[in-house]
Amino acid sequence: MALASRDALEFPESDREFLEPQLPPRDGSTPRPDMPFTTLTFATSLDSSLALSPGTRTVLSGPQSKAMTHYLRSRHDGILIGVGTALADDPGLNCRLTGVGGYGKEGLEGQPRPIVIDPSARWDFSDDSKLFQLCRQGRGLAPWIVTSLPELPVQKKEMLEKYGGGFLQLKMVTLDDGQHRIDWCDLLKTLHINGLGSVMVEGGAQVINSLLEPQSMSLIDRVIVTIAPTWLGQGGVIVSPARRFDGEGNAISAARLKNVRWYPFGEDVVLCGQIRI
Ligand SMILES: NC(=O)C1=CN([C@@H]2O[C@H](COP(=O)(O)OP(=O)(O)OC[C@H]3O[C@@H](n4cnc5c(N)ncnc54)[C@H](O)[C@@H]3O)[C@@H](O)[C@H]2O)C=CC1
Ligand SMILES: Nc1nc(O)c(N)c(N[C@@H]2O[C@H](COP(=O)(O)O)[C@@H](O)[C@H]2O)n1
């Protein structure tokens, strides 16, 4: 039995019960046969900010809600971010709960597959990147990179393969401003074909705002948001999907939740719900 490390997190049994109805079913069944159970989850400030400024890593979750997020990581097969988050945070994207693989258990059981949407291969990862350090320590899986390029540069491809990661090439639309747009349905189906029965989308803002657009929001099975009691102030990285309008041209809310539950966690509150279609 591998020893749990001092940085391992605890998420008590008593806190797990309320989350159960929000999580991917343990029997592996999915709401749609060809797609993973998809959870949108992130931590936000009171002014809908994910971070103080683009390119900055900002701690919002307190210790209890952070442990909850790691529990979510243990209950999903994949954890998806955009390249903006990879560049800003150099994230670990593993699960650091006591009792999962690498933290008290042999193997990598309970570790999610990191997935990074990186249309033009901007993420300049190396052996020193946190994610690959964790792979070497047997504490996390190597990432899959989703790109629009037919091939990754050879060096990147070789390094990914060395650690057991890979890349998925998907068609993306290129907008006038040079930004890429993935087809979420296509992406989720591809992840499912590659063996993922559940995926949690963590962010950042561009990823979340695009997933919350009318054509893709119905693909979200659950929303689980940690709200921290702080205003980050202007200039932050904001979650705010594009405006929507009714038939008469009046603005309507972009998205709304139903079946809402609120749970206090330390100083934070965790909001769970489903998208009202
Ligand atoms: N508080 C929290 O829970 C979280 C905070 N963050 C923070 O968010 C910030 C990063 O957010 P953003 O700058 O918005 O970057 P992002 O992580 O959303 O990545 C943006 C990039 O991802 C790609 N991308 C995003 N959506 C796409 C789509 N629909 N189709 C194709 N490609 C797409 C594009 O290359 C785009 O430039 C960081 O500061 C990070 O710390 C990130 C995740 C969670
Ligand atoms: N739940 C949550 N709370 C916060 O306060 C955060 N800043 C984030 N950020 C997300 O978690 C990733 C970092 O993961 P590691 O701790 O490095 O494993 C970061 O990249 C964001 O996706 N999440």
UniProtKB/TrEMBL annotation:
InterPro entries: DHFR-like_dom_sf, RibDG_C, Riboflavin_Biosynth_HTPR. Signal peptide: none annotated. This is 2,5-diamino-6-ribosylamino-4(3H)-pyrimidinone 5'-phosphate reductase. It holds the Pfam family RibD_C. The keyword Oxidoreductase applies. It comes from the Eukaryota. Belongs to the HTP reductase family. Residues 1-36 are annotated as: Disordered. It comes from Penicillium cosmopolitanum. Gene3D superfamilies: Dihydrofolate Reductase, subunit A (3.40.430.10). Keywords: NADP, Oxidoreductase, Riboflavin biosynthesis. GO terms for biological process: riboflavin biosynthetic process. It is an enzyme of class 1 (oxidoreductase). The keyword Oxidoreductase applies. Pathway: Cofactor biosynthesis; riboflavin biosynthesis. GO terms for molecular function: 5-amino-6-(5-phosphoribosylamino)uracil reductase activity.
